[in-house]
Design brief:
heterodimer, A: 367 residues, alpha+beta, BirA Bifunctional Protein, domain 2, 2 domains, 7-stranded mixed β-sheet, 12 helices, 9 strands, 17% strand, disordered N terminus, B: 644 residues, Phenylalanyl-tRNA Synthetase, Chain B, domain 1, Phenylalanyl-tRNA Synthetase, Chain B, domain 3, 6-stranded mixed β-sheet, 5-stranded mixed β-sheet
């Protein structure tokens, strides 16, 4: 604060009354003591108010002062009054700004406080994996076909070259319906092949072929345990065209496994047998966890079995009304849970059907 | 199937010095993956996976034969001179075509019956136990070595001729496992003149079995029709080493050899003396020739494949092959019942060459790809949307208990049409009519596990009993319960309300009113058929529809309304009145707040109704809007509401 200064000698007894001198002396301390607007207004009233203030009393004094002193006294009073006014004004600005600062603080938000988080759910890991597989095959031109879970024996077995006395048809392996003994819960997604080929045979012939994936839920009579469930998911793939050979199957699945597991994924084909393909094979992928060194997941072999496949058996094409002399194709089918467990090292299949939100959040998450 | 490496090497010396790992790779490459390797006594034992079509490799020699073809190596010759056959000492009558061939021999056993230690060790490695009865142990040992099942009867228990025939209804047989079996007319049996003595190709009978007191044995080495044996094994739930091999197709040409080997064993082990050997019937004719063109071979292989190379592979497998003008004519060997079409032969050629030699190529597109159908896209998009709305996707079993099903099934959907004949248990016996029971179970599990809020959904078919069988409808089920919010300074905690779910249903474009059900206190659920949800239009983006650029005006009416007056009636009456007055300028009207307090007249609540107006062509004036609001108020008053 500027030093308080009065022209002439303020202590001149015959110039200013003693109360005014004291007021002048106390003014800086009183001003500093004003913590809010109310106190400041009270101080303002006491010093420069219209009535009863120090300034008003000095003005009264000026009126009654001897003529020869008036000029000098007037100048002193004026200076004094101006100084008070300016100081009060400055203090007022100060207080107003402090108040503004406090106000701003009150409506401010500490960015480190927890903000409201939008609710976040999760896809099921099995759905996510199925969709991922669809995405992998989509660039190759595969679309998605679906079929019912309640199937006929004809679609589930006959059309797939599965012999009449095959054990899979028995009631120990397959669920049948009490009121409709010819109906069953499909044991694989392969009947979608039969349905689509039958339905689209004329179109397939006209177009030159077809390729699609058929994901879905399937049922087998397995007791529930850490590696079995009476309901699980498969993704079936089928391609029918002209002059389709094992090399096409290999090229397609090698592409798919690299797309799924990374460019360095290694794929192995082994001969195997399924009634609806010939030749048949099983496809292993180099263990994605140990990269072939051998671990618990691949049981030390460095390879994990991923899917079954082969060239479509001529009987399957013929059943659907497609001439196997002219047309050929390949099919592959994979167990979604199997791949999910292998990739994620989930120790117990039942976790996928328990639907604990904690499991779903971590395993399924959001795309 | 258990394979002792030492015994395999005895059959195929080329395998000597081969490491176990290399052998496993070799077998896997031929289609016989090794599931486990065990330390046997003196030699590792492999658990080899054999596919259902390959009965011929279900023995050490059978597997060795396939490996030998791959390696182009030779098997150790069999050590059994062919017995010279004579007249039947006991008549053998084959009365049913399911038994083609029945080779037999009569032997007198010597004093010793002990089974050599080496054979006992081998049987242990096979998971079997030596009985210390030479005829039994030798038969068992030879089955594992060579794959052809044989049987020995105590000859002194037999009465008259041996007859292979179908059983007669009412006949019974106590099999070796001590079980009395009622036979059916479909069972193929071995009988003597007193009745059944064995289930053909499955198991011998107890009364005629070899015992320590047996002095004379009659050997059986036959060939039975695979289908007949499979059916019997299934019918009697009696799956034996013999039924597995006959059921998949044994080698008819090995029947006599099997008998000769067994006789030789008994001579070597028990000092037995051959009394006579004879055979009834003949092996079935050789399989029909299969024509396999080079074109087909190359189409399957995906590369040039000289016919001579293919012929060589097939010959190594025992096929009779003639090659001429671009095609092979192939007669498969008597042990390969699985080869019947050219594709089978193509597989054999590729298998022996190694599947790793198949080239890799992407097939050319056969036409334009099809788009992804809505039947796939709708659930996929819906799932993502719900997950982003905080819901967790569940997968639950399609079958539930009749009790749970009854809680949610409608009366026109009886469970009987959806019930399984052979469920895993009652709790899994009905294909569910609703997803809600399963969702409730999953939600309650989460709450029990300490979840504060549970928000789940499932998209799966539900089943409806129809005349043609269960019909499936893809359905969305939602369940929501627990406490919302309360986890940050800005969001107050509150219990989940049914209205929360209604909001979701509306957001998903549910066309009809849906029913929210309280499945247990504070747990709300609803179920919507996917058919009832709006699908995106076919167009890439919708057609342009003009919107007003003039300001909208909003007015709020605070009304006192009876607590028991439904909102829907009030809103509809007010909307109708405003629509009549304002026409197109009326946009909408809805309740934005409800106030219930003891300061209000008893039985009434305050409802804040917001009305919105907007014209296409001009800015609305206060005066005209006031008139429309007055019309709304009049309609509300007619229903007993008053301005607060």
């Amino acid at each position: 604060m500027r030093p308080f200064f009065v022209y002439g000698d303020p202590m001149e007894p015959n110039l200013l009354p003693i109360e005014s001198l004291e007021a002048q002396q106390n003014f800086p301390a009183s001003l500093a003591a004003c913590g809010d607007m109310d106190a400041l207004l009270r101080l303002k009233g006491a010093y420069i108010g219209r009535e009863g203030s120090h300034a008003a009393r000095l003005m009264d004094l000026l009126k009654t002062a001897p003529k020869e002193q008036k000029r000098e006294l007037g100048a002193v009073i004026n200076t004094l009054k101006n100084q008070w006014e300016e100081a009060l004004k400055a203090r007022q600005t100060e207080l107003e700004e402090a108040k503004k600062r406090r106000g701003a603080l009150a409506s401010s938000w500490d960015p480190d406080l927890p903000p409201p988080i939008p609710a976040r759910g999760a896809l099921h890991p099995l759905t996510r994996l199925v969709d991922r597989l669809v995405d992998v095959f989509r660039p190759l031109g595969y679309h998605v076909e679906e079929g019912p879970e309640v199937e006929t024996e004809a679609h589930n077995f006959d059309g797939l070259n599965i012999p009449q006395d095959h054990p899979a048809r028995s009631s120990a392996d397959t669920f049948y319906f009490a009121e409709h003994p010819e109906l069953l819960l499909r044991t694989h997604t392969s009947p979608v092949q039969v349905r689509v080929l039958k339905r689209l045979a004329p179109r397939i012939l006209a177009k030159g072929g077809i390729r699609f994936l058929a994901p879905g839920r399937v049922y087998r009579k397995d007791e529930i345990d850490p590696t079995h469930s009476p309901m699980f998911h498969q993704v079936e793939g089928l391609l029918v065209g002209r002059n389709i050979g094992m090399h096409h199957l290999k090229g397609t699945l090698e592409y798919a496994m690299k797309a799924l597991f990374g460019e360095d994924a290694d794929v192995r084909f082994r001969p195997s047998y399924f009634p609806f393909v010939e030749p048949g094979c099983e496809v292993d992928v180099r263990c994605p966890l140990c990269h072939g060194k051998g671990c618990r997941v691949c049981k030390g072999s460095g390879w994990v079995e991923l899917l079954g496949a082969g060239l479509v058996h001529p009987n399957v094409l013929a059943y659907a009304g497609i001439d196997p002399q002219v047309w050929s194709g390949f099919a592959f089918g994979m167990g979604v849970e199997r791949i999910a467990m292998m990739v994620s090292q989930t120790p117990d299949l039942r976790l996928f059907f328990e639907n604990d939100q904690r499991f779903l959040k971590v395993m399924g998450g959001l795309d | 199937m258990r394979i002792e490496i030492k015994a395999l090497q005895q059959e195929l010396p080329a395998l000597l010095g081969q490491s176990t790992t290399a052998l496993c790779e070799l077998l896997a490459g031929l289609g016989f993956p090794v599931d486990a390797v065990e330390d046997g006594a003196g030699s590792p034992v492999l658990e080899v996976d054999v596919t259902a079509n390959r009965g011929d490799v279900m023995s050490h020699r059978g597997l060795a034969r396939d490996v030998a073809a791959r390696l182009d190596a030779s098997l150790t010759p069999l050590d059994a001179p062919a017995l010279s056959e004579g007249a039947a000492l006991l008549p053998v009558r084959l009365e049913d075509p399911a038994c083609w061939l029945y080779a037999t021999a009569l032997l007198e056993l010597g004093s010793s019956q002990a089974t050599p230690a080496a054979a006992q060790t081998f049987l242990n490695a096979m998971g079997s136990t030596a009985k210390n009865l030479a005829p039994v142990d030798a038969s068992n040992e030879l089955l594992h070595r060579n794959g052809h099942p044989t049987h020995a009867f105590d000859a002194d228990t037999l009465k008259g001729a041996i007859i292979v025939r179908r059983a007669k209804a009412g006949e019974k047989l106590v099999t070796l496992d001590g079980v009395e079996r009622a036979l059916t007319a479909d069972d193929l049996i071995i009988a003597d003149e007193s009745g059944p003595i064995a289930l053909a190709g499955v198991m011998g009978g107890d009364p005629t079995k070899v015992t320590p007191d047996t002095t004379r044995v009659l050997l059986e080495s036959a060939y039975f029709d695979p289908r007949t044996v499979r059916a019997m094994a299934r019918r009697h739930n009696l799956h034996t080493d013999a039924s597995h091999r006959f059921g998949r197709g044994a080698n008819p040409a090995f029947a006599r050899i099997g008998r000769d080997l067994l006789a030789k064993r008994l001579q070597d082990w028990a000092g037995a003396r051959l009394v006579g050997a004879w055979t009834a019937g003949d092996a079935p004719p050789a399989a029909k020739p299969i024509a396999c063109t080079q074109t087909l071979l190359e189409a399957v292989a995906g590369e040039a494949l000289p016919l001579a190379e293919a012929a060589d592979f097939l010959r190594r497998l025992g096929c009779l092959v003639t090659a001429d003008s671009g095609k092979l004519t192939v007669i498969p060997p008597s042990w390969r019942h699985d080869l019947s079409i050219p594709e089978d032969l193509a597989e054999e050629v590729l298998r022996l060459r190694g599947y790793d030699r198949i080239p890799s190529a992407l097939p050319p597109l056969e036409g334009h790809p099809d788009p992804l159908a809505q039947v796939y896209l709708q659930p996929r998009n819906l799932s993502r949307r719900l997950a982003n709305l905080g819901f967790h996707q569940t997968v639950t079993l399609g079958f539930i208990s009749p009790e749970l099903d009854a809680q949610f099934a409608t009366h026109d959907n009886p469970a009987v049409g959806r019930t399984l004949t052979n469920p895993l248990g009652m709790e899994y016996s009905v294909m569910r009519a609703s997803l809600l029971a399963s969702l409730r179970a999953a939600a309650e599990l989460n709450l029990r596990q300490g979840a504060k809020e549970v928000r789940l959904f499932e998209i799966a078919p539900v089943f409806f009993s129809g005349h043609q069988g269960p019909k499936e409808t893809m359905t969305l089920g939602l369940i929501w319960g627990g406490t919302l919010g309360g986890e940050d300074p800005l969001t107050k905690a509150r219990p989940v309300q049914p209205a929360d779910l209604l909001g979701i249903a509306r957001d998903l474009g549910c066309r009809d009113r849906v029913q929210v059900r309280e499945l247990s206190p504070g747990l709300f659920a609803l179920e919507i058929s996917l058919d009832d949800l709006e699908l995106p239009k076919d167009r890439v983006i919708p057609a342009f529809s003009p919107f007003s650029r003039f300001p909208a005006l909003e007015r709020d009416l605070s009304l006192l309304v009876d607590l028991d007056k439904p909102y829907r009636g009030l809103a509809e009456a007010m909307s109708m009145a405003v629509l009549m007055a304002a026409g197109e300028a009326f946009r909408d009207l809805h309740c934005v707040d409800i106030f219930r307090h003891k300061s209000l007249p008893e039985g009434r609540q305050a409802m804040l109704i917001r009305l919105r107006f907007q014209a296409h062509d001009r800015t609305l004036t206060s005066e005209e809007v006031d008139a429309w609001v007055a019309a709304a108020l009049t309609a509300a008053k007619a229903l007993g509401a008053e301005l607060r």
